[in-house]
Design brief:
By secondary structure, this protein is mostly helical. It is built from 4 helices and 5 strands; from the N terminus they run βββββαααα. The protein has one domain. Helix content is about 45%, strand content about 10%.
């Protein structure tokens, strides 16, 4: 396994962000990348409506942290960071289809920076079938999230005036702290 440690030591800093307590080291074929202590990550940046399929952490957590680091620091071009991410997913034992869907998602997130025509064709071959499989559950989950938020909001409006303890207004999405 190219990551030098099995365990990722982190401290939660917000609802979605985590800070590394120890460096994360990846030894590739030609380069070694070290994600430093204090680096802040959200693990896998998965849209909320798809966390049922790809939770924000799992066997791919180290790959996601490394990908965040490579993209934010510009240590390698985005296309290469996405390729390293896909390789790390393979090395971490992520199954074939999930690995390629995750790669297709990060390529979409990069808006295809540096993508060759052959890579774009590969992306289409993964993204189109994946989108057709994900559209119905995605809409269902999005509708469920909205209905739950609406019920939470109604409950808040009714109970907040009579509550003796501080209450927290519900949000549709988890708040992102300022960076």
């Amino acid at each position: 396994m190219p990551f030098t440690k099995d365990i990722v030591a982190v401290t939660q800093t917000s609802d979605v962000d985590w800070r590394l307590n120890e460096p994360l080291i990846y030894e590739g074929d030609r380069e070694t990348f070290t994600v430093p202590v204090e680096f802040v990550t959200d693990f896998a940046s998965v849209p909320r409506i798809f966390v049922w399929l790809v939770p924000t952490y799992g066997s791919y957590t180290k790959a996601a942290i490394l990908h965040d680091f490579l993209c934010r620091t510009g240590a390698v071009p985005r296309r290469d960071a996405d390729g390293i991410f896909r390789r790390c997913l393979l090395e971490s034992g992520v199954p074939f289809l999930r690995r390629w869907i995750m790669w297709a998602a990060v390529r979409l997130g990069a808006r295809f920076a540096g993508t060759t025509p052959a890579e774009f064709a590969t992306w289409l071959a993964i993204a189109v079938p994946a989108a057709t499989l994900l559209i119905v559950p995605g809409i269902t989950v999005a509708a469920s999230i909205f209905v739950f938020w609406l019920l939470e909001r109604i409950t808040f409006v009714v109970l907040e005036p009579v509550s003796r303890k501080p209450t927290v207004a519900p949000g549709l999405w988890p708040p992102r702290p300022p960076k």
